[in-house]
Q: What sequence folds into this?
């Protein structure tokens, strides 16, 4: 349940998912994240899934929806560290997660968040990674 | 016996809530690890199991998962998982297998998605009686 | 039946030498390259062993758990595996087993009256056929194994991953891109991304002769896999012809960035990773 830590570092919230979440726990985590953003007003959310072995259609959809909700609140989301087996499975499953921004690791993820947040007003929702100086 | 080629003990897990789905996943992963399936195959099948187990919980309330090893042609071994419930059953299987079909406000990737993730997939359903889905992954 | 089988077995034992000679003569005549591949002395030893076990099996030929029966199968399996490796034709491998009949029947003919002969031939026939089938199965199995190994080896060499710059990898795609190869290419691509923590993957399609809707779909799949991992994917090698076909076919590459030349692709990759060529 409350096993997942939500860390606030600077202007970002970092959520490392370390356990296998069952459906209700995942829903609770979503609510918890949204509440924290409401309370703290951070501009970036980073979800680390490098310890997650299984992302099925439920969890996949929940992650995409969380990012959408968070964006409505004026915050950007980056998902980092997805395992290659998980990626291949999601692709085979046919789950579309295109709207979700991703990075290889936390470091890259934080850098991406920074550019996304600072370019938000200039570029709207176009791909922040393809900014030209 | 549901399958004459069964060659080892079988495991039964009752699934009636979301925590049970996690337990079912862990059991399947453990067995596949013991049988030396690749990490990718483990991930694919455990994901399929997750979809099918959830399907049982949402549509039938509860059901049973049975796991056992099977022998195939030419010395291959496989893992078979059977999901049985006594729920309302499926009226139109073809329709239910289609991508995007959903009666429970999910993505509708459940059945069709699970089928794409495993080597063999068989579904039988009698409306009003229940549903039985079996999947096999070969080593 | 049992009594007859015992009788046959005794008879074979008595004429072991003669059958052995006949069989080897047959082999040299009809399966020369097999004998050459195995070696004359070894062939002799093998036929002698098989014959010995065969005589032991004969009395109760239906008992497949029989020790001698298993031994015959083992020898034949080893032989047949060797034949596959040395590219001996399946018919010669089959002749090896079936020519045993031609060496046994004359002996039976000399010793038995007509009524007994028919039954005896039937029994011997049945057993040898069974052995033949088993030999053939092994032959096919080892052939399949070889093909699998070759396919595996081919797979490994057919998708090379090139590290072109710091945190930039490139995969040149060559030949047909069907769904099986796409699957394999994606596995290799994602593994390389994970191991090297590369930020950009360039897929170069210069070596793909025809890019149709299906190939385009495979490319999009691969690109979205790379994106899910957190990397960017650039497709290079999009020549005029390809651009034309894609648009005419109404294929939407779904936001995947494409370039014509590898150089342009690399330039873009460097920009994406905040690097410069020195």
A:
């Amino acid at each position: 349940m409350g096993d997942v830590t939500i860390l606030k570092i600077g202007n970002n919230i970092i959520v490392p998912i370390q356990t296998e979440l069952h459906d209700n726990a995942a829903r609770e985590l979503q609510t918890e994240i949204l509440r924290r953003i409401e309370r703290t007003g951070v501009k970036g959310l980073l979800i680390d899934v490098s310890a997650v072995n299984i992302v099925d259609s439920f969890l996949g959809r929940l992650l995409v929806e969380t990012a959408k909700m968070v964006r409505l609140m004026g915050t950007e989301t980056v998902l980092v560290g997805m395992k290659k087996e998980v990626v291949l499975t999601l692709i085979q499953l046919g789950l579309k997660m295109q709207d979700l921004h991703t990075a290889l690791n936390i470091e890259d993820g934080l850098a991406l968040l920074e550019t996304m947040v600072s370019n938000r007003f200039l570029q709207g929702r176009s791909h922040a990674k393809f900014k030209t100086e | 016996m549901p399958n004459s080629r069964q060659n080892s003990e079988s495991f039964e897990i009752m699934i009636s809530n979301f925590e049970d789905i996690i337990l079912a996943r862990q059991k399947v992963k453990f067995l596949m690890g013991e049988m030396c399936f690749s990490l990718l195959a483990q991930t694919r099948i455990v994901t399929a199991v997750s979809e099918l187990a959830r399907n049982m919980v949402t549509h039938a309330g509860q059901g049973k998962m049975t796991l056992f090893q099977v022998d195939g042609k030419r010395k291959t071994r496989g893992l078979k998982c059977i999901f049985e419930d006594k729920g309302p059953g499926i009226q139109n299987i073809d329709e239910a297998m289609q991508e995007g079909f959903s009666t429970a406000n999910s993505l509708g990737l459940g059945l069709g998605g699970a089928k794409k993730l495993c080597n063999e997939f068989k579904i039988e359903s009698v409306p009003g009686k229940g549903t039985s889905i079996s999947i096999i992954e070969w080593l | 039946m049992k009594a007859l089988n015992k009788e046959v077995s005794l008879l074979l034992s008595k004429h072991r030498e003669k059958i052995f000679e006949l069989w080897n003569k047959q082999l040299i005549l009809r399966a020369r390259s097999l004998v050459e591949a195995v070696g004359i002395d070894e062939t002799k030893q093998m036929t002698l062993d098989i014959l010995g076990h065969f005589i032991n099996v004969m009395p109760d030929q239906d008992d497949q758990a029989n020790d001698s029966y298993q031994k015959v199968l083992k020898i034949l399996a080893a032989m047949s595996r060797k034949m596959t490796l040395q590219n001996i034709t399946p018919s010669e491998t089959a002749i090896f087993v079936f020519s045993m009949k031609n060496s046994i029947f004359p002996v039976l003919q000399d010793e038995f009256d007509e009524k007994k002969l028919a039954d005896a031939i039937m029994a011997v026939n049945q057993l040898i056929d069974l052995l033949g089938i088993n030999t053939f199965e092994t032959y096919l199995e080892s052939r399949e194994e070889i093909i699998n190994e070759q396919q595996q080896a081919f797979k490994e060499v057919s998708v090379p991953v090139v590290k072109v710059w710091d945190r930039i990898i490139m995969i040149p795609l060559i030949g047909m891109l069907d769904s099986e190869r796409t699957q394999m290419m994606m596995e290799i691509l994602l593994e390389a991304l994970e191991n090297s923590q590369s930020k950009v993957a360039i897929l170069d399609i210069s070596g793909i002769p025809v890019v149709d809707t299906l190939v385009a779909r495979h490319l999009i799949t691969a690109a979205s896999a790379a994106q899910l991992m957190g990397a960017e994917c650039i497709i290079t090698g999009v020549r005029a012809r390809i651009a034309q076909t894609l648009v005419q076919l109404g294929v939407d590459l779904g936001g995947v960035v494409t370039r014509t030349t590898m150089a342009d692709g690399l330039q873009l990759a460097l920009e994406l990773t905040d690097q410069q060529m020195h």
About this structure: The helical segments of chain B are 18-34, 39-60, 93-97, 110-117.
